[in-house]
Design a protein that fits this description.
The structure holds two protein chains of two kinds. In chain A, about 40% of the residues lie in helices and about 20% in strands. By secondary structure, chain A is an alpha+beta fold. Chain A has two domains: about 190 residues, Penicillin-binding protein 2a (Domain 2) (Alpha-Beta Complex), CATH 3.90.1310.10; about 325 residues, Beta-lactamase (3-Layer(aba) Sandwich). Chain A is elongated and about 130 Å long. Chain B has one domain. Chain B is globular. The chains are: A alpha+beta, B mainly alpha. At the A-B interface, helix 1 and helix 2 of A face helix 1, helix 8, helix 11, helix 13 and helix 14 of B.
Chain lengths: ~650, ~375
């Protein structure tokens, strides 16, 4: 073989092919250069942003939730700092050993410990795992003292929602709880704050309705993280903005007294200021402790609440719709007077029943009231008089007046599950049942039976409108400016009509033959006017009558009539209206009116009234009752007293 | 005086050869390697350990090797070509039987001071052997089917062995590097057209068959191909790396984020940041200017090699120089295409910049051959 192999013909070929290959290479290099230019120059901003997103992780800082106050500033919903113990695996070294130590200090169960270890195994080693929540001060000190022996363990402060008045405000204030998937979706679906472990949102009532203002704005901690998600350093911090405090119109003493007064019954009561619509008390009994719900209620506790026949979870004030019974007679009276179908002095003869459309309708008083006028019919709740009035007024006018008084309309309040009740009309019956309205329907409606349904809240609004003659609407939030009288428009009712209804209602409580005369108030300037109502749940059957059942007390609880009472006081210058409902309480005069009386007295006296406010013959009995009540209510504080005077 | 004697009498001898080395190429190699040192220092978080210092030592060894190889006459290397190729094939088979397994696939032979990857060696010995083959083969037989089939087998045997490891990147380099030498040697273009046509046709047929009754591959095989071609299909697996690489590269802008300021590499978002993906760190920290400069350095190395080959009347020397330049070109262009998202990730390091011992030493020996060809060219 020669040392070198020279081929004169071959070299040009190599040259030519080399050029071709070189050209191909240049093309590739050109493509690479263009690609770099495109990515690094044209799309640099996009990639720079992506790099920043990679690098910077936003950590949210939960804002303190706004507090909820009563009208005097008493805190109804607060945030309590609690200590929780967390452990970071990578700092703990032998996590199992450290946890065993923690278990000894805090007395955790073995089950608990196993759960913690399981969670630890699932999460990255630098993620803090909650070991114990809401530890006591002593336990905290123990953890702190032992800190050198507990690497990776730390105690942090977290804010926990707490309701200092416990059961008193469960239905109004509501409660908070962990956000579930549905909540996250309802909140635009991407609120990272809701996804934070341990973050709570309002679940019912004011806590839920005012979530947006109570929640506040989350703070942000920008941290630089590496690819594994570990925090390398913090870059920027935006402090959280705490939620706004909310002041309610409720008087926490009156609310507390109302619930004490309703104790033992399935009942609801509302006290409303007739001048500005402030809801002073709004109680549904029995109630429950909202604090149980904050960290998730146990199924045992929950089942007990759910299965209670008195339905503590339901807010009967706005969720319960009941036949209003004779309370509706005020609406009919006003409709008749305004339409001049009944004149103030006109009398109707009540023999105890009346035949209309071939059907006999009874008065509650079997023997009849004899000749009776409107005022007397209100006083004695004569059904026959109102059957006749209803026949003349007709359902259309009755429907219109009831609507003006607020029936059938859902009040605009920040509460949950508000019912609209039912103010029936021809159109409604046709739509609902496809049937014509019958005269019998009108007669039933005239005494608040049949189709008519109203919530205790609606009846309170009705009483407030009758008391003031103005279109009172309730409010639960206290305006933060001094001139807080909302400009309620006049209802446009003739003063004479209102005066006559007022007189009738005054007689109900104060006249010798009034249905609620035993609940009269004798203290000057504190007198009450009202109207009783008893709404039938079941008729006493012929079989029961034969078996000797004569009165409500002989029936089982859930078959007795609902007892209702609506009132306003003081008579001369009405300040408040009250509505009370006692489920299956029997008669309104016996079960509901005394409650209304006590609420009026408590409010007007700023506490338990002197026994002199009651009629002389009741004072002995009332003193005992007042003593009992005073033991079960909150002591009156000076703060509240000052506001009242 | 024979023609031959005339052509060799001006070949420099002894240490005078140093003056005749292709110094521009040496300078360019040093520049590229220095860029590598800087980047290795950066990805280590501003430390010479664990990568920069060993890399510098190996590069110095490489330069010595290159010059040493360059001083040896080219005809010696031509005579050694067959033996070198045979040894590397034997080593390839050897690792197949006795080699260590590391990183899931790579196999090497531990020589004590260095872990030699026979596949790296084969890239050069194949080119060397093919150049010698065409130097030996009379030109008029170049396109004869039998004499074409032979080098095809020479290429396919190591390619198959490497594929089996599996090392797709090296296999491609072998295939294209060997093909380039055949093309340069003057094998009739119709062969290339046929192979390219058949390849394109086969790929086309496979893809067209998808979802039809005569589907050529199983569904899961298609899905693998999908992920291979478009890593975005597998955002947490292969896709994650390429996406992070693109973010690093793209966020560099004109002048980059500054030395040691690249967040993508500093915060470990980049995979293999000291080896296959080192170019993305460079592009992130030095921007388009830095990345394009490195590309230009590479191109200049190719240009000087090609110029040297074209001025070399010795067929073996010219083919060898062109072949090595082509292999070098494939190295950096496949790596850059890979990290810029133009090509699938196949695992090819950036030559002289990526951290890695045997790849660098083998490349330096290859450039030693280029130097030998340059020094000993007939004048």
């Amino acid at each position: 073989m020669t040392k070198t192999h020279i081929d004169p013909k071959a070299s040009p070929r190599i040259t030519r092919r080399g050029m071709i290959l070189g050209g191909a290479q240049l093309t590739v290099v050109g493509a690479l250069g263009l690609r770099m230019h495109k990515m690094q120059i044209d799309e640099a901003d996009t990639f720079r942003t992506m790099a920043e997103e990679n690098r910077i992780s936003m950590q949210l800082i939960a804002p303190p939730r706004g507090r909820i106050l009563d009208r005097f500033g008493a805190v109804l919903a607060d945030n309590r700092p609690t200590y929780q113990v967390t452990i970071v695996r990578e700092r703990a070294g032998d996590a199992q050993k450290v946890l065993a130590h923690v278990q000894m200090i805090l007395g955790l169960s073995d089950d608990n410990l196993r759960q913690i270890l399981e969670e630890m195994a699932e999460r990255s080693s630098f993620v803090p795992i909650t070991v114990a929540k809401d530890i006591t001060w002593d336990e905290l000190s123990q953890i702190s003292i032992n800190a050198p022996a507990l690497p990776g363990v730390s105690a942090d402060v977290v804010l926990q929602r707490v309701y200092p008045f416990g059961t008193d405000f469960a239905h109004i204030v509501g409660y908070v709880g962990r956000a579930n998937a549905q909540d996250v979706e309802d909140n635009d679906g991407n609120n990272a704050l809701l996804a934070m472990p341990g973050f709570h949102i309002g679940k019912i009532s004011v806590e839920k309705a005012e979530e947006a203002s109570l929640r506040g704005t989350a703070g942000r901690l920008s941290v630089e993280v590496n690819a594994a998600g570990r925090v390398m350093r913090s870059l920027d911090q935006v402090p959280p903005v705490s939620g706004a405090d909310l002041q309610l119109t409720i008087d926490h003493h009156l609310q507390n007294f109302t619930l004490a007064r309703l104790a033992g019954q399935s009942a609801a009561a509302v006290v409303i200021d007739v001048q500005n619509g402030d809801l002073l008390a709004c109680a549904s009994a029995p109630t429950f402790d909202p604090n149980l719900f904050v960290d998730g209620i146990s199924s045992k506790d929950y089942n007990a609440l759910r299965d209670d026949p008195y339905r503590p979870l339901s807010d009967k004030v706005v969720q319960g719709a009941y036949p209003p019974g004779s309370v509706l007679k005020m609406s009919l009276a006003l409709a008749a007077l305004e339409g001049a179908q009944v004149s103030p002095d006109e009398t109707v003869y009540c023999p105890g029943f009346v035949e209309i459309g071939g059907r006999r309708f009874h008065c509650w008083k079997r023997g009849g009231h004899g000749r009776i006028n409107l005022r007397g019919a209100l006083r004695e709740s004569c059904d026959v008089f109102f059957y006749e009035a209803a026949r003349r007024v007709g359902i259309d006018n009755l429907h219109a007046m009831s609507a003006r008084l607020g029936l059938g309309e859902r009040p605009d309040l920040p509460l949950s599950g508000i019912a609209s009740g039912l103010n029936p009309s021809r159109e409604w019956k046709m739509q609902r049942y496809g049937k014509e309205w019958l005269i019998g329907d009108t007669i039933n409606a005239s005494i608040g039976q049949g189709f008519v349904l109203a919530t205790p809240m609606q009846l309170a609004i009705m009483a407030a409108r009758i008391a003031s003659g103005k279109n009172v609407t309730p409010r639960l939030f206290k305006p933060q400016i001094a001139s807080d009288l909302p400009g309620f428009t006049d209802m446009g009712l003739a003063p004479a009509s209102l005066a006559l209804v007022h007189a009738g209602m005054t007689d109900v409580v104060n006249a010798a033959r009034g249905t609620a005369k035993s609940s009269r108030i004798v203290a000057e300037g504190q007198t009450m006017a009202g109207k009783t109502g008893s709404s039938q749940v079941f008729s006493i059957t012929a079989a029961e009558r034969a078996a000797g059942v004569r009165s409500q007390a002989d029936l089982p609880w859930d078959r007795r009539d609902h007892a209702l009472f609506t009132a306003f006081a003081p008579i001369a210058q009405p300040r408040i209206a009250v509505s009370v409902l006692v489920e299956h309480g029997g008669g309104g005069s016996l079960a509901a009116a005394p409650i209304a009386r006590d609420l009026v007295l408590f409010h007007l006296n700023g506490g338990l009234p002197p026994v002199e406010a009651y009629p002389a013959d009741q004072r002995g009995r009332m003193q005992t009752s007042l003593d009992e009540l005073s033991a079960s209510i909150l002591p009156i504080d000076r703060h509240a007293q000052k506001e009242r005077t | 005086m024979s023609y031959l004697a005339h052509n060799t009498q001006f070949v420099p001898t002894g240490f005078r050869k140093i003056l005749y080395l292709n110094w521009p190429v040496i300078m360019l190699l040093m520049a590229v390697a220095s860029a590598g040192f800087v980047m290795l220092y950066s990805v280590a978080g501003g430390s010479a350990q664990p990568w920069m210092e060993p890399q510098i030592k190996r590069f110095i060894l490489g330069v010595v090797l290159m010059i040493g190889v360059g001083m040896v006459p080219i005809w010696f290397w031509r005579n050694m070509a067959g033996l070198a190729f045979a040894v590397s094939l034997a080593l390839l088979v050897g690792v197949e039987l006795f080699g260590s397994v590391g990183m899931g696939a790579q196999r090497w032979i531990d020589l004590g001071f260095i872990r030699l990857q026979p596949s790296e060696l084969t890239k050069i010995t194949l080119v060397m052997f093919l150049a010698a083959y065409y130097d030996w083969l009379p030109t008029n037989k170049t396109s004869h089917p039998v004499w074409v089939a032979l080098p095809v087998i020479f290429i396919l045997v190591p390619t198959a062995l490497v594929l089996k490891q599996p090392d797709l990147g090296t296999a491609l380099l072998l295939l294209f590097g060997g093909g380039a030498v055949m093309f340069l040697a003057g094998v009739h273009w119709a062969y290339f057209a046929t192979v390219i046509g058949a390849g394109v046709g086969a790929v086309y047929a496979v893809f067209v068959s998808r979802g039809t009754t005569w589907q050529l591959l199983k569904d899961y095989q298609f899905r693998r191909i999908d992920t291979f071609l478009d890593p975005a299909n597998d955002p947490l697996g292969a896709g994650y790396h390429i996406t992070q690489a693109k973010i690093a590269l793209g966020s560099g802008g004109w002048t980059g984020r500054g030395f040691m300021q690249g967040t993508q590499s500093r915060l470990n978002f980049l995979p293999e940041k000291h080896t296959d993906f080192i170019f993305t760190t460079l592009a992130e920290e030095f921007g388009f200017v830095g990345a394009f400069s490195l590309l230009a350095l590479y191109v200049l190395i190719i240009v000087f090699c090609v110029a040297s080959a074209m001025n070399n009347k010795d067929r073996f020397a010219a083919l060898l120089t062109m072949g090595i330049a082509m292999t070098f070109f494939l190295f950096f262009s496949v790596n850059m295409a890979m990290v810029t998202g133009l090509a699938p990730v196949v695992g090819v390091p950036l030559p002289l910049v990526s951290y890695g011992g045997s790849a660098m030493l083998v490349l330096m020996v290859a450039f030693g051959l280029v130097q030998s060809a340059h020094v000993h060219k007939p004048r």
